[in-house]
Amino acid sequence: MSKTTKQFQTEVQQLLDLVIHSLYSNRDIFLRELISNASDAIDKVRFEAHSNEALLEGNADWQIRLIPDKAAGTLTIRDNGIGMTAEEVETNIGTIAHSGTRAFLRNIKEQNLAEHPEMIGQFGVGFYASFMVADRVTLITRKGGDGTQNGCRWESAGDGSYTIEECTKEGRGTDIVLHLKEEMKEYLDEWKIRAIVKKYSDYVQYPVVMDITREEPVTGADGKVIEGAGTMEKTTTETLNSMKAIWTRPKSEISDEEYEEFYKHISHDYDKPFKTIHYAAEGVSEFRALLYLPAHKPFDLFMPDRKRGVNLYVRRVFITDNCEHLIPDYLRFVKGVVDSSDLPLNVSREILQEDVQIKRIEKNLVGKILSTLAETKEKEPEGYLAFYKEFGPVLKEGIHFDHANRDKLQELVLFESSRTDAGQFVSLKEYVARMPEGQKEIYYITGTAREALEQSPHLEIFRKKGYEVLFLTDPVDEWVVQHLTEYDGKKLKGVDRGDLELDTEEEKKEKEAKKEEAVKQYKDLLGFIQERLREQVKEVRFSGRLTDSACCLVADDYGLNANMERILKAMNQ
Ligand code: ADP
Ligand code: MG
């Protein structure tokens, strides 16, 4: 392949423009992104080498090397990770493969990104942060096991196009060469680099090294200083990070800031987490977990192929960021790390699918997360509400999928209702506590929007009786009420059901009598309407429910309700 020039995908270039022209001041994070990519690449080669040792080329001395070159004005980040083939460079750099992400980026408010370019990490485009400090970036890479002549050289000035060509490269892995902008030369400074690595990448588990050259007094062969011989330059390689996995340290020694930085590192979120959960489990299954509940939802929460949030380690060695059974789908917003002491290091991804240890860990994590949420709801209702507004629709999926924890989940779900203001919520517990005397059931109405539900004629009788009605406006609520049929001994019923127990015995009798009379009097009319609507409805009957409206539609006791029918229709059922 000779040198070819190619165009960036439109969305990538838009993103680059935003990054390049951003006034954002914290440019330091470019180094965090590049070191994190280097660390990911080493994780990969390390894991894949279990089944294919040739990848290693005899070099398992993991290292991320920073090479500032003042004369050339470049900062190079070099790793001996997995490396990339030319094809992989093309797909990984310069395109955003995921169409959902592309669509999202197209719609994102430019303002937001200009103020928070560090957000880009969450879109899987952290690499482009390079262009905050460099006006040209060269990437030289070679895949492990591929032979020195199979390297690839990619270069771009971030101006719409990039070049790509073959090259030779000695060692396996990737060099990112940043040609620093004139005003960004401070990133060549030893102390500046040290400070950034310490702040953002201290817990990276591979050594981040740099050659440090100092003037030292001349020494003899015995290592002793020779008086009067002057000084000489001496270069030593120093490791800049402590490499201490934060989750292995005692809680008391970890500052809030460290927890926060680690969260940002793994989540690519630009905001603080809402809650941090750090604990060690002992007994049947031994592991450490450091979990975070984010403060706001990521853009891809409802995209089917989003990344999973909890990474699996075995005795501090990274195994996978894609372990299916570590955390259930309805808690997919949880980010963090689980480090097991029980699993074997060379555990394969297939085994992980079936492993009982993983299932035990999952059970434990779910218990811990749900109890943390319960406690938060109790102690910080405001905070919980804000969290619930972001993640409630996802959490509610658990009622459908996690039978074992339904009791706990039903305490965590909240709904708007006929007695709350818009944006305010009630729990089932509160609902039951404020039920007026005589009310035997819990009522809800489903639909797409609160405003529409408030107009429903079904609510008339409930208003009159002072009964609260829950407004279920999430699509997922339909599944919720299929499983949450009873709470605290009270049945949950849709207001459009035919079998509601709204009246006292006396009221019932009174109504029955009136109805009978009406049926007699208007038999012909009823028959006429029934005849005209034969195709549309099953039955036309008098109702004791309405106060102001002339008629309403009700569902069979076991039939589908109107909203469900609408959903199924939309799904073409
Ligand atoms: P993310 O890391 O979230 O995937 P990035 O923009 O940081 O997004 O990187 C894009 C992709 O480019 C990575 O997923 C990886 O496949 C590839 N990549 C980036 N840096 C390296 C590297 N140093 N070694 C190997 N692959 C890399
Ligand atoms: Mg990255």
Automatic annotation (TrEMBL):
<dbReference type="InterPro" id="IPR020575">
    <property type="entry name" value="Hsp90_N"/>
</dbReference>
<keyword id="KW-0067">ATP-binding</keyword>
<dbReference type="InterPro" id="IPR036890">
    <property type="entry name" value="HATPase_C_sf"/>
</dbReference>
<dbReference type="InterPro" id="IPR001404">
    <property type="entry name" value="Hsp90_fam"/>
</dbReference>
<comment type="subunit">
    <text>Homodimer.</text>
</comment>
<dbReference type="Pfam" id="PF13589">
    <property type="entry name" value="HATPase_c_3"/>
</dbReference>
<keyword id="KW-0346">Stress response</keyword>
<dbReference type="InterPro" id="IPR003594">
    <property type="entry name" value="HATPase_dom"/>
</dbReference>
<comment type="similarity">
    <text>Belongs to the heat shock protein 90 family.</text>
</comment>
<keyword id="KW-0963">Cytoplasm</keyword>
<protein>
    <recommendedName>
        <fullName>Chaperone protein HtpG</fullName>
    </recommendedName>
</protein>
<comment type="function">
    <text>Molecular chaperone. Has ATPase activity.</text>
</comment>
<keyword id="KW-0547">Nucleotide-binding</keyword>
<dbReference type="InterPro" id="IPR019805">
    <property type="entry name" value="Heat_shock_protein_90_CS"/>
</dbReference>
<feature type="domain" description="Histidine kinase/HSP90-like ATPase">
    <location>
        <begin position="26"/>
        <end position="184"/>
    </location>
</feature>
<dbReference type="Pfam" id="PF00183">
    <property type="entry name" value="HSP90"/>
</dbReference>
<dbReference type="InterPro" id="IPR037196">
    <property type="entry name" value="HSP90_C"/>
</dbReference>
<feature type="region of interest" description="A; substrate-binding">
    <location>
        <begin position="1"/>
        <end position="349"/>
    </location>
</feature>
<dbReference type="InterPro" id="IPR020568">
    <property type="entry name" value="Ribosomal_Su5_D2-typ_SF"/>
</dbReference>
<keyword id="KW-0143">Chaperone</keyword>
